[in-house]
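Dear support,

Our group has been running a series of protein-ligand predictions, and this particular one with manganese (II) ion is the one our PI (initials K.S.) wants archived with full inputs and outputs. We had some confusion internally about which version of the output was final, so please treat the block below as the authoritative record. The input we submitted was:
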Amino acid sequence: MKTYAIAAIPGDGIGQEVVPAGERVLQALAATEGGFAFDFEHFGWGGDWYRQHGVMMPADGLEALRGKDAILFGSAGDPKIPDHITLWGLRLKICQGFDQYANVRPTRILPGIDSPLKRCKPEDLNWVIVRENSEGEYAGVGGRAHQGHPIEVATDVSIMTRTGVERIIRYAFKLAQSRPRKQLSVVTKSNAQRHAMVMWDEIAAEVARDFPDVHWDKELVDAMTARMVNKPATLDTIVATNLHADILSDLAAALAGSLGIAPTGNIDPERRYPSMFEPIHGSAFDIMGQGLANPIGTFWSCVMLLEHLGELAAAARLMHAIEAVTAQPALHTRDLGGQATTADVTQAVCHALKASQD
Ligand code: NAD
Ligand code: MN
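Confirmed final output from the archive:
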């Protein structure tokens, strides 16, 4: 029997509630599936680690993760530590260290979930946003000088490389090609940003020639926000820069009902390193420690983890169990207008998995 080695990194805030829930669901799945098992190793990195050691994760932390089949991540973000320290010290260290350059974010309106889009039928919204995850606006290049003086200056320089742009656009075309509609929207801002985004557009047109069966269009990022709200059915696969896709995917999550539902994978498509799966939400300081966190985003991320491992039947079974649970309003957490707890939803998904055993 195959045993998958999984690193669990709950991190901070509600990450510490939803990652153990995800582990329970994956173990319940393995127990009812039979063909494989999970061996979890837990890493207590994050804000508490920072208070004890002065860093978010150990200097040799990546080495401990390198041999894993996948990483299940919660959130980095602590009310008492500046966000740029927690983010760069843990999550981005792993994403960049393992060159997880494709951040993949599916969005659908799950059964039983109410979208704020009143004229949108659930089948009208079925998107995957592909976010460039290694450079661009979040390259980390820049600096500050004359700090505290009137002449103080600060820069965040967006870096776009031909290699970086080409690989993410090619990944997006391939993904679009694998989906029934074979449709890709390339998000840009080449009207105002006249260097890197123009190169981005040129590379998109070049890569498109290798995918003659994919219909593609180009949309300015500001217009894209309106299109997502007004014409959701015209979209399928979407590719955008690090910053643009960061914002568009939170909008997508909200349009699909809640930030608490949305999953993501930080993927190394070449499989040189382990990929990392996590809900898109953060530490949710306002609800942490109260059992109110919606674990569905983490469970859906576990579906993506299973797909990445090639366990497609098990992934589909977990997705069905999740949908069976979201379909019941009595099992909605507070972000969805319900009263269920993290534990209630977790237990219900585990039961649904047992019920679907044969
Ligand atoms: P957030 O996602 O933590 O919370 C935004 C709102 O959504 C809050 O009202 C929260 O209660 C709600 N929410 C989020 N997830 C939920 C869930 N699973 N169930 C129910 N409600 C949920 O975003 P924020 O407030 O902007 O950030 C808080 C901290 O998290 C910051 O430190 C930020 O840097 C960090 N953060 C980390 C990541 C990450 O590690 N991937 C992502 C986003 C934010
Ligand atoms: Mn974000």
